[in-house]
Backbone:
């Protein structure tokens, strides 16, 4: 979420978490398709941005 030009401020250590709702049948189908367990941990790489200047 880009908060540029808004009244929203951020300081180190603050965090925003959004938990979306997923249809249970769709989740089960996805897990089966990818041979995953509901308790599996999935780590995604973070894209790094170039520093300005």
Residues:
């Amino acid at each position: 979420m880009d908060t540029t030009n808004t009244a929203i401020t951020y300081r180190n250590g603050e965090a925003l978490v959004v938990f979306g709702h997923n249809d249970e049948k769709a989740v089960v189908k996805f897990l089966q398709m990818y041979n995953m367990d509901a308790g599996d941990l999935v780590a995604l790489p973070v894209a790094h941005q170039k520093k300005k200047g």
